[in-house]
């Protein structure tokens, strides 16, 4: 489980393309519901999902599964992609793996100051992907942006 966030005005144009289609599984919809219910309970605005962000989250899950490295590798590339394609002003990322349920993952995030800061942050949008390796181990990437 790890958390990462940055806020920067630096942008380098690239040839990123926005991905508009993404199909959500039950676990991803549960995370969306838990995040927005929690934010509402704290008097915060719910976040809107953006498929492109979930697509990038899925790519990071696949990277972690393939390499067996659970960290924020290539976060700067995901951040730059989101700044370029969606006009993000701020980007944060929570990851997790190995939890049995979405509830246990979400509770672990809430019990971590850095993860909770992303969930409670002044973000406007987010995306999420949950993928399982061949052993059924869950990998989760949740990216937040502020437009």
From TrEMBL:
CDD domains tied to this protein: CAP_bacterial (cd05379)
Residue ranges annotated for the SCP domain, each copy included: 34-139
SUPFAM superfamilies reported for this sequence: PR-1-like
Lineage: superkingdom: Bacteria
Residue spans crossing the bilayer: none
Protein name: CAP domain-containing protein
Record organism: Flavobacterium supellecticarium
